[in-house]
Amino acid sequence: MRINERWAKPTILAAGLAAGVGLLLAQEKAGPSSYAPVDLHEAFRTVMARMLAAKPAIEKRQADLLSERYDLSNRPAPGLTMSRNKSVQQGVRVKLAQGVTWDQLAKLTPEQVKDRDIFPAGFLPLPHPNHPEGGMLFPKFEIEEIKKQEERDLTRFDLDYDVPDHFLPEFPPPMYLTTRPDLGDVTKGKLVTIDNYYELFNGVLNPKQIDGLRLLLTTFPQQQYNQTEDRRTEHASRGVACFDCHANGHTNRATHLVGDIRPQEFRHRINTPSLRGVNIQRLFGSQRALKTVEDFTEFEQRAAYFDGDPVIAMKKGVNILDRGSQVHAMAEFEELLDFPPAPKLNIEGKLDPKKTSANELSGQEIFFGKGRCAGCHPGPYYTDNLMHNLQAERFYKPRMVNSMMASSDGPIKTFPLRGVKDTPPYLHDGRLLTLEDTVEFFNLILETQLTAQEKVDLVAFLRVL
């Protein structure tokens, strides 16, 4: 059959134009995507070599940022330790702009601070050690102990943890149970792992709670720790366990990026919160949309472990937990985790005058009065179980910091302050290294105009909670 040439030439021309336009469009840079790439075409060894080569410069960039923002020296408070024996760091570590004092800064309006661009850099959101990459990242002491006990390696070939150890919680932290306060630290100074949990808790927990603890110590695939070619461990990994981050039901401040924001530069760094006292909490998740610890436990396995991307979760081995048995058992154990003892507090969570110093009593008065702390942190557990938007962006203009957009934090959950000296660094992303930093931050944000002595007294009160 002959083709009519009258129609054939325009058709061929149109096809050629379409092919050319398609080629041009293919060469254009794609816009940001909500999805992680699934089908990769670069060999794993090539990826690892490339990321290893880039690692020194990435880590130097983060180290330089921390040094510019903070005094990172090891200066413990004399005679003050966490629940076991690790020293508590003291002093304001956030650096000020040249020629500015804290008193001068506190007297300025948010607009004046923004116009002069003197908002302390250490009060800005803190980026992930490698923000474009992100992912779960563990302190060295956690990595070493898990390797020793389980012969399981949590080392990432592309990145190491950034904040110095002396600003992190003690390790391993003690564990206290609401059901057996008479036992004190039920871990006996050990890191609870799949290797020792049974001998430590048999006879202390009921069978359902023991199984819940077992699941919290069981490894499941995660975005960076799995068997696929886009993992970030040299060898195929069994994954991570809940208590790899929530060491002994507390925290080692392992870090990550929240899974519920896109594009990447707008995602917030989040440091692992403590599970102590989780039974009195009512909001869970990075944006606090989850209403029970059961919801949160299930959500973690389905999506949060995979950067909030259920598409890639299947590729890497998503673990769907059974709600009626596994999730419930895990939650039942979590809800036994208690705050550390606070012998200076009475049953209302207030100071017993017979056991406290004048500084601590003055700090309590400031906490519930001029400092306006109790507006979000009422006793006895020092949380209102709500969320609050601090609107810190009133004080600065949005900017890119190490590939992260430092802008609005949005609503932040009110974390309990019971045992707060055991949970440095502070705020959801760990940008505040000490309690003194935290007091200065809120003195500025809330515009409370505290005196130097009032700040000292307020810190003294926080240390005994």
Short description:
The chain has 465 residues and is mainly alpha-helical.
Q: Which helices and strands occur, and which strands form pairs?
A:
Layout: H1 5-27, H2 44-69, E1 76-81, E2 87-89, H3 102-106, H4 110-116, H5 140-150, H6 197-201, H7 207-216, H8 242-245, E3 255-257, E4 269-271, H9 293-302, H10 310-316, H11 323-334, H12 358-367, E5 387-389, E6 399-401, E7 404-406, E8 411-413, H13 435-445, H14 452-463
Antiparallel strand pairs: 1-2, 3-4, 5-8, 6-7
Helix pairs in contact: 7-11, 9-11, 12-14, 13-14
Explain this structure to me?
This protein has 465 residues and is mainly alpha-helical. It folds into 2 domains: 70-124 and 343-465, Orthogonal Bundle (Cytochrome Bc1 Complex, Chain D, domain 2), CATH 1.10.760; 135-341, no CATH class. It is 33% helix and 6% strand. The chain has helices at residues 5-27, 44-69, 102-106, 110-116, 140-150, 197-201, 207-216, 242-245, 293-302, 310-316, 323-334, 358-367, 435-445, 452-463, and strands at 76-81, 87-89, 255-257, 269-271, 387-389, 399-401, 404-406, 411-413. Helix 7 (207-216) crosses helix 11, helix 12 (358-367) crosses helix 14 and helix 13 crosses helix 14. The relative contact order is 0.13.
